[in-house]
Amino acid sequence: MEILAIATFVAHEGKEGELLATVREFYGMLRRKGYSRDVLYRDGKNPRRFIHLRYWKSEQTRAEAHEDPDVHRFWQRMGLICTMESVTERLDEVDWAASAAE
């Protein structure tokens, strides 16, 4: 079962291109290692603000990624070119059928 995580971050002034290149490289590495699939959105009102959706393949791959030195290197690079506004590590889908029965 996939695990959804969401992060919101803002590129430092003049670092938008570097941030996008870093994110592209990071997502590719995560995909190649089989950790996740990722989607990036840009805020229509603030072009330096991004909303990132990560679908971890499983709890196991999420845990593996959190221990992976390659992942840590990207997180360090990201800290130099953007500010993280928020991170939600795990979202669980609401089962509407079950909640309607309550």
What report would you give on this structure?
With 102 residues, the protein is an alpha+beta fold. The model has no long low-confidence stretch (mean pLDDT 94). The radius of gyration is 15 Å and the shape is globular. It has one domain: Alpha-Beta Plaits. The two termini are 24 Å apart. 44% of the residues lie in helices and 33% in strands. It is built from four helices and four strands. A four-stranded antiparallel beta sheet has the order 2-3-1-4. The relative contact order is 0.27.
Question: What characterizes the major β-sheet?
Answer: 4 strands, antiparallel
Q: Any idea what the shape is?
A: globular
Secondary structure tally, helices: 4
Q: What top-tier CATH class fits best?
A: Alpha Beta
CATH architecture name: 2-Layer Sandwich
Portion of residues within helices: 40-55%
Give the strand order, joined by hyphens, for the main sheet.
Answer: 2-3-1-4
**Strand coverage percent:** 25-35%
What is the CATH topology?
Alpha-Beta Plaits
Number of domains: 1
Mean pLDDT: 94
Question: Which descriptors would you attach to this protein?
Answer:
102 residues, Alpha-Beta Plaits, four-stranded antiparallel sheet, 4 helices, 4 strands, 44% helix, globular
List strands and helices in order, with pairings.
Elements lengths: L2 E9 L4 H17 L3 E7 L6 E8 L2 H9 L1 H13 E10 L4 H6 L1
Antiparallel strand pairs: 1-3, 1-4, 2-3
Helix pairs in contact: 1-3
Characterize this entry briefly.
The protein is of the alpha+beta class. The chain is built from four helices and four strands. It starts with a strand and ends with a helix.
